[in-house]
Design goal:
CATH architecture: Sandwich
Radius of gyration: 18 Å
Number of domains: 1
Structural class: mainly beta
Oligomer: single chain
Order of helices and strands: EHEEEEEEEEEEEEEEEEEEH
Helix content: under 10%
CATH topology: Jelly Rolls
Largest sheet: 10 strands, antiparallel
Number of strands: 19
């Protein structure tokens, strides 16, 4: 997502994770020896609109395991059948970090109104970044998952997104929210960025009608670590969870809006074909038309690492690392 020239983008910082590794886990959908539900069963039980495991052995179809079968297409340079990220998924997809996003470099799902969520949304995925910097010469933000295009009325590339900030090298979530807030609209907001188109009729710069909101967690991500990332919005607050724990929240009242017929879902790159492609592996992308609870998010995390030889680490147990 790119901001208009009048808006300075800021993402909150964070990092934390667990080392990636381990052998294949149990079969998909299987119960553990103690009858514990698998990650797949937990996700499907929480009623996703779409669920992309990205565990295909080959082919060009990114299958939606959810109820609506909003299948997508793997770009020809996306490497399928790569080592798994979580305990009960045998494979993941690898992205090559190309200089510019394109249909050849990432995963695309055509527009559907089911993804055009306004005041209740959650989206989740697991990632192993090989690098937290742009892999090529493009200095734009790196997209992990997003929905939107670049011809929206407010000129944002997407309506909602989770990615890597190109300048601060942190994970952040971004949303375009039409509404209002009594929070300071300032780069110095303590929890993230509230940049806005000010409603000129009020004359009050603390009240705005269109927000570009960004929030993340405190700290910095590291290469070759496993991260469960979850973003939610309930019409009042956007929240970021990392490895099963709430890391940050940013209050803004309104709805995600400005959707157009050109929008679409992209994974690993940006639908607008401007910013760079993620360099690393992604799996288990799920989208919900409701807000996941903290308990559900924690249960997903625990199921994802259960039974795998991956060092599970809570996100809040790591201090922020100073950058030079």
């Amino acid at each position: 997502m790119r901001c208009p020239t009048a808006i300075v983008c800021l993402a909150m910082l964070f990092a934390l994770g667990a080392p990636v590794g381990g052998a294949d886990g149990p079969a998909r959908g299987a119960l553990g020896s103690a009858g514990v539900r698998s990650y797949r069963d937990l996700v499907l039980g929480d009623r996703p609109v779409a669920y992309y495991r990205l565990d295909e052995r080959g082919g060009t179809v990114a299958h939606d395991s959810g109820p609506h079968h909003f299948d997508g297409t793997f770009g020809r340079r996306v490497r399928v059948g790569q080592p798994r990220l979580i305990a009960d998924a045998p494979r993941s997809a690898e992205f090559q970090g190309a200089n510019v996003s394109s249909a050849a470099e990432d995963i695309r799902v055509p527009r559907t109104p089911a993804f055009e969520l306004r005041n209740a949304i959650s989206y989740e995925l697991w990632v192993d970044p090989y690098s937290v910097d742009p892999h090529g010469k493009n200095a734009g933000d790196i997209t992990l998952v997003s929905y939107g295009d670049d011809l929206n009325p407010d000129k944002q590339h997407c309506r909602w997104e989770l990615g890597l900030d190109a300048h601060s090298h942190v994970f952040n979530l971004q949303m375009v929210i039409y509404g209002h807030s009594t929070e300071p609209v300032s780069i110095r907001h303590p929890r993230g960025l509230l940049a806005a188109t000010i409603d000129r009729l009020t004359g009050d710069k603390r009240v705005a009608r269109e927000f570009y909101g960004a929030a993340g967690s405190v700290g910095y991500p590291a290469p070759h670590r496993l991260y469960q990332l979850v973003s939610t919005y309930d019409g009042e607050t956007i929240r970021m969870y990392v490895n099963g724990a709430l890391n940050n929240e940013l209050p803004v009242h309104g709805v995600i809006d400005g959707y157009t017929a050109r929008d679409g879902l992209s994974i690993g790159g940006e639908y607008a074909n401007i910013n760079p492609v993620f360099y690393g592996r992604i799996g288990e992308v799920s989208i919900y038309d409701h807000v996941l609870t903290a308990a559900q998010i924690r249960a997903h995390y625990e199921a994802g690492v259960r039974g795998a030889t991956i060092g599970a680490t809570d996100s809040h147990s790591f201090p922020a690392r100073r950058r030079n």
